[in-house]
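Chapter review: from sequence to fold.
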Amino acid sequence: MTKIFRAHFVTAFALLFFSTSAMSSGLTADEQRMMAWIDANTENAIDLLEETVNISSGTMNPEGVRAVGKVMARELEAVGLSTEWIEMPDDMQRAGHLFGHRYRDGKKKILMIGHLDTVFEADDGFQSYRRDGDTAYGPGVEDMKSGNVVIVYALKALKEIGALDDLSVTVAYTGDEENAGSPLSLSKHDLVEAGKWADISLGFEGGISSDGQDWATISRRSSSNWRLEVTGKQAHSSKIFNESTGHGAIFEAARILNEFDQKVRGEEYLTFNAGTIQGGTDITYDSETNRGTTFGKSNVVPNRVIVDGDMRTISQAQLERARAAMREIVSRNLPLTDAHIEFEDRYPPMEPTEGNRRLHSILSQANEDLGRGPMPIVDPSRRGAADISFVAPYSDSLAGMGAVGEGGHTPDESLDLRSMPVAIKQAALLLYRLTREE
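The token string follows.
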């Protein structure tokens, strides 16, 4: 079947299907036209996915990230958006970001977020797209080059029925989502400003679907780091615990970590992890590479410990409560030891606000009208941090608007291609219905 004939056939079939069932499910005539157009153009969307997956674009591969950006700029410009490449300073070692804009005075302002980079660097063995029936495999196929395509084709569907002019749109394709450039105040500056501009922000990382049930994401937990450093008095081990030697650095570190577990742990959605620990009399640790060395003897009281960890919370208030409790524990030192803890902000929480719940109700109704049933809200512990968290404090937000896959960040990363038109339809319907709100 030729591509042209196939497209006409799919369009005709889709129109027939919607004419007999869609009106009863609540789709308007214009919405039916959009759904038919999406069905007819699904293979074109998959072709674009293949093109971008076959471009290696690990975060630390600036040339590859820019190459994917050029492809997506081409697609955004074809929809009528103006594009700009936002460079980062050379010493940040990040490619930069692609932003697309289409402003309309007095129209609802929508920010759509994707990212161009993957976790697979240029020297990784997992580099190419492969399709097996309804499943596609490749680096970034699920996280998140499919979501980038969903953004483009949702906009194209709106343009097809003349509804794109009813929105003011910014598309932000960041180039460092998988390994954010430092300082965040610079690498995420343009994204944050876009969030302050927007009325609504939508993140297009992979959606969640299980047993035929689609799920909506109205919140994501934060991701931040902590580093504990402990010192003690080095001495012969026969003198440990006496007044002149004290307890040593490792016992003090053990006390602190145990009290973290016993006294800080317990709030819903709060987790913290001690990822690495170095302790002895001569240690090194590099938090950039997560590597260190340790030397010590069993008959010597150790004088230093470094613990590196992370923390995840559902709200900024929860984050501050946990940090305050950890600081208090760290301050109560065992004899002749000292300790201090430092915290590093990374990804803030995307809190489950009432505005987010309102967006969820619109998306869930759209999903019902597609014949797929209501969308329950996903437990935020099932999601990691994402770029949408930087804008969520400023605008009503939904995340997880992309297609459905599995195995992200592994050589088994895959995408269910049947979920591509579903995600495009969900996004297009949500955007269209937002244009019709008072």
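Two observations follow directly from the output. DSSP finds twelve helices and 20 strands in the chain. Residues 1-24 have pLDDT under 50 and may be disordered.
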